[in-house]
Amino acid sequence: MTTLLRRWSVLGRLSELPGPIRLIVLGQLAFNTGFYLVLPFFALHLTRDLGFGGALVGLLLGLRTFSQQGLFFVGGALADRFGTRPVALTGFGVRILGFLLLALADGAVLLVAGTVATGFAAALFSPAVEAELARRAGELERDDGPTRSEAFAMFGVAGEVGVVLGPVIGSLLLTVDFAATTLAAAGVFVVVLVAFARGMPRRPAAHAGEPVLAGWGEVLSNPAFLAFTAAYSTWLLSYNQLYLALPVELERGGAAGMLGVLFVLSAVLVVLGQVPLAELVRRRLGARALPVGFGVLALAFAATAVLIGFGTAGPVPAVVFVVLLTLGQMTVVPVAQDAVGRLAGERRLGAYFGVLASGGGLAVLGGSALLGSLLEAQGPPALPWAVTAALPLASAVVMGVLVRRVPALQPDHSLTSAERNSP
C-alpha cells in the first residue's frame, strides 16, 4: 500500500529529483500561484474599479497575451545566448516590476506598462525554465533516473496546483483591494527570485558568444520541428476554449455557475492522474501518445458537438468536454515537451521551446477569432464545436506521420537506457 501511494504521490516522486530540478518543479507551482492571484480578477478591476470600457479592457488583455505568448521565441533565444539562469532571474524581476505597476496604476499609461511587463516577464523566464528542465531532466534520464517526460508531468501537476491556489488566495485578498492582491503576487515572485538565485547553479550559456539570430536560423531550418510545432499549436488553441467556448456553452445550458467547478475538476484530474498516466503512456505508447492524445482532444470537441446537437441540456456537454480535454492534455503535453529536446538534438533548447510556445500563441490568436465569430453567429450551437474538432484531428494525423518518419520520435527513444538494454 505504501508503494502504491508513493507511486501516485507527487511529493513522493519529487524526492527522486535532484535539487535544481525539484526547484524548477516547485517554482512552477509558485509561478502559477502568483499569476492566478491576479489574472482572474484583472478584467473585473478594470471595469468595476477603474470604469474602463470593453474596448480598452480587450486591448489590455490582448497586449498581455501578445507580450507573453507571442514573444516566447525572444526569451528562448536570449536563454541560449546568455544562459537560462540570468534570463530567468531577469524575467522574475520584470514580473515583480509589472505587478508593482499594476498595483499603483490608476490610468491607461501605467496599466499598459504593467500589463506589457507582466506578460514579457513570462516570455523571458518560461522558455528559460523549460529549457533548463529539459536539459537537466535529459541528463538525469540518461543516468537511469526518472524520465524527462515524467519530470515534465510533475512540472505540469505543480502548475495545476498553482492554478487552483492562486484564485482562492486572490479572492480572499480582493476583499481588501486589487492593490493588495497584486502586491501579494509580487511578493510570491520575490520569493521565487531569491530561491532561484540561491538554488540554481551557475552554468555557462550553451551558445555564449554566438549571435542570437543563429538560434532562430537553426530552428527554422529544422522541417521536422516546424511540422511538429504546427501540429502541436492546436493543443493550446484547444485548451484556450476553457476560457472562450466553455463559458458560452454553460450559459446556453443554463449552468453558468458551474464554470469554477469545472476548472477545479480539470485541475484535480491533472493533480491525481498526470504522473501515473505519464508513466503508463511512456511504457505503453512512447511518442505514439502524440497522435492518440490529439485524437482524444478531437473527441472532446466532437462529443460535445454531438451532445449539443441532440439537445442535451444542463452541464453534461461541458463536463464531457472538460474531462476529455484534460485527458488529452495529460497524454500529449509531457510527451511533446520531452520530444522538443529530441527534435532539437539537445541543442538550443531555449530557442526551440520559445518557438514552440509562440506557434501556439499564433494559433490561439487566429483560431480564437474564427471560433469567436462562430460562437456569436446565429447558426446551430453545435457548429463551432464540430469545426474546432477538425483542428486537433488534423494534428493527430500529422503527429502520426511524424512518429513513423522522424527517428527522434520513434517509440524506442522514449525508453530509459536500462529498458533499452534489457533483454
Automatic annotation (TrEMBL):
Parts of the chain that traverse the membrane: 21-44, 50-66, 87-105, 111-130, 151-172, 178-200, 212-235, 255-277, 289-310, 316-337, 349-371, 383-403
Top-level lineage group: Bacteria
Pfam families (UniProt xref): MFS_1
Transmembrane helix is among the record's keywords: yes
Location within or outside the cell: Cell membrane
Protein keywords: Cell membrane, Membrane, Transmembrane, Transmembrane helix, Transport
Stored InterPro entries: MFS, MFS_dom, MFS_trans_sf, MFS_Transporters
Domain Major facilitator superfamily (MFS) profile: 20-407
Membrane topology: Multi-pass membrane protein
Keyword Amino-acid biosynthesis part of the UniProt annotation: no
Protein's name in the database: MFS transporter
Origin species: Actinomycetospora chibensis
